[in-house]
């Protein structure tokens, strides 16, 4: 039985294992060990100032040459919502063109639609009220269909 998946190929890892950032509990050493073992180690950058994120990235790079990630989740309470219509059309096209490259690799339909607001996690009751901008093909396709 093989654990190799398209995600492994996309991320350059051996196993479809992605470590959670885990806040301050997991440092660069754990991130590097997960990556060296064939998974994707993740630096938790949520509450770190930029200099500390840079230090963590440098530390992981010293410990491994394997792929790793940085969790830079930005909670909606930390950033006020923006009016989606205020995003310049050129910016929407640029972002969508970049995302369309990923969509193509993942077999998803391309789109040039503006982002829309939706619940960030409809499955999680504690976050059901959180609203986040969505740049996904599915959400933007649904928005384009409803505006026809």
What does this structure look like?
This protein is of the alpha+beta class and 148 residues long. It folds into two domains: 66 residues, no CATH class; 60 residues, no CATH class. 39% of the residues lie in helices and 11% in strands. The strands form two sheets. It has a two-stranded parallel ribbon with strand order 1-2. The chain has a two-stranded antiparallel ribbon with strand order 3-4. Helix 3 links the parallel strand 1 and strand 2. The longest helix has 18 residues. It is flat. 11% of the residues are buried.
Detail the poorly predicted runs: 119-134, 136-148
Compute the separation of the termini in Å.
47 Å
Give the oligomer, counting copies of the same chain as homo and different chains as hetero.
single chain
- What proportion of the residues form beta strands (DSSP E)? 5-15%
Number of strands: 4
Total of DSSP H or I helical runs spanning 4+ residues: 5
Strand order of the largest sheet: 1-2
Q: Provide the structure class.
A: alpha+beta
Global outline = flat
Helix content estimate:
25-40%
Report on the biggest sheet. 2 strands, parallel
Mean pLDDT metric: 78
Rg over C-alpha atoms, rounded to the nearest angstrom: 18 Å
Query: What is the H/E order?
Result: HHEHEHEEH
Number of domains: 2
